[in-house]
Amino acid sequence: MTSSSSLGGFSIRVGSRMGVGVGSVGCDDGFVTLMEYLGKGGANVSDDLVVLFGHLEYACKRIAALVASPFNSSLSKNVGVAGGGGGGASDRDKPKPLDIVSVRFTAALYSVQIAVAAWDHDLLSGASIKNEIILSSLRNSGKVAVMASEEDDSPVWITDNGPFVVVTDPLDGSRNIDASIPTGTIFGIYNRLVELDRRPVEEKAMLNSLQSGTRLVAAAYVLYSSATILCTSFGAGAHAFTLDRSTGDFILTHPSIKIPSRGQIYSVNDARYFDWPKGLRQYIDTVRQGKGKYPKKYSARYICSLVADFHRTLLYGGVAMNPRDHLRLVYEANPLSFLVEQAGGRGSDGKNRILSIQPVKMHQRLPLFLGSSEDIEELESYGNVQQKVNPGYEV
Ligand SMILES: O=P(O)(O)OC[C@H]1O[C@](O)(COP(=O)(O)O)[C@@H](O)[C@@H]1O
């Protein structure tokens, strides 16, 4: 927790809120909320981006409540909905049932929403409730031209003059929900490319969403775990805020996160060992025996929930990886690579910097290695670390 002195520049407290944009002046208690941090110039971002973040924050609080609700178990069961899942997804990857209710409720009716979502399958429309929560927040913000979601086949055009493009994975790791394992939401934010304004809607929606990661204006993830944590960057460091459930505010708890240049943890689905290329096997065998450049025996940690594995890696160092073509460049790899770079680490596909890879299709998948700069460098030095054999794993 940051001391009050390092937070001294912030003296206006914005009251807790169910909606957004409803600020009230409170006392100087030494805590900085996300909205204060943004609004008081802590991140030096435009008013438009502050408004957008207010709406994203609200959407994530609603998802946090949904994930923690007694009705969340149906989130984890597969159903055969059309679309979504990112073009050719396996059953494992398809949206889950709480995903498939598209009724909108006001904040006051939110508890009703959860209950209805849990059982009213007559209301199914093929849309995801998490998607809908985010989409309705983005619409209400008035700041977003297009949203591209991992759960949709194509980007959704929202409003012509919205200054931003939002790419999102609304709830990564949702198949873990039955076991109360952490899950997370991922966002990337780009400026709308005004030079595309006159193109047909579908075309400009797609091209705006396929921007290179180097053009990200901001990125964030929200981890739904023992605490709900929102970690974000606007291009000047990575900062994490923890949800204070008593007030509904995200409080700055981890300013200027610096990932250690070395960690002692590798995070990977070890069961795939026999499908790995020689280089990756050698790397893992070496570091777990303490025979790498960093002469410590590494430990394995794998939650199998990307945001949770990434968050731990950001704080403790090491490497979080998925060496097969599974994770998505647009929705997962780019935003998380932006964040890890802002914390002093690296995001790689095993050969190239993730942010420099130009996306060519919305649901493009690739190997992903995120972590401490020296650990990633050592891993890449083994040459062949990308798993090209990618059978349809069942679990
Ligand atoms: O089966 P693997 O290769 O271990 O993949 C697990 C990874 O897939 C994810 O579940 C994401 O997959 P989806 O995007 O298809 O939901 C991550 O949360 C996790 O890190």
UniProtKB/TrEMBL annotation:
Keyword presence, Hydrolase: yes
GO MF, one annotated term: fructose 1,6-bisphosphate 1-phosphatase activity
EC number: 3.1.3.11
Residues of the Fructose-1-6-bisphosphatase class I N-terminal domain: 130-255
CDD domains per the UniProt record, alphabetical: FBPase
Catalytic reactions on record: beta-D-fructose 1,6-bisphosphate + H2O = beta-D-fructose 6-phosphate + phosphate
InterPro entries associated with the record: FBPase_C_dom (IPR044015), FBPase_class-1 (IPR000146), FBPase_N (IPR033391), FBPtase (IPR028343)
Domain Fructose-1-6-bisphosphatase class 1 C-terminal: 259-382
Keywords carried by this UniProt record: Carbohydrate metabolism, Hydrolase
Short name of one Pfam family: FBPase
HAMAP family: FBPase_class1 (MF_01855)
Family listed: Belongs to the FBPase class 1 family.
PANTHER family: FRUCTOSE-1,6-BISPHOSPHATASE-RELATED, FRUCTOSE-BISPHOSPHATASE
Entry protein name: fructose-bisphosphatase
Upper classification of the organism: Eukaryota, Viridiplantae, Streptophyta, Embryophyta, Tracheophyta
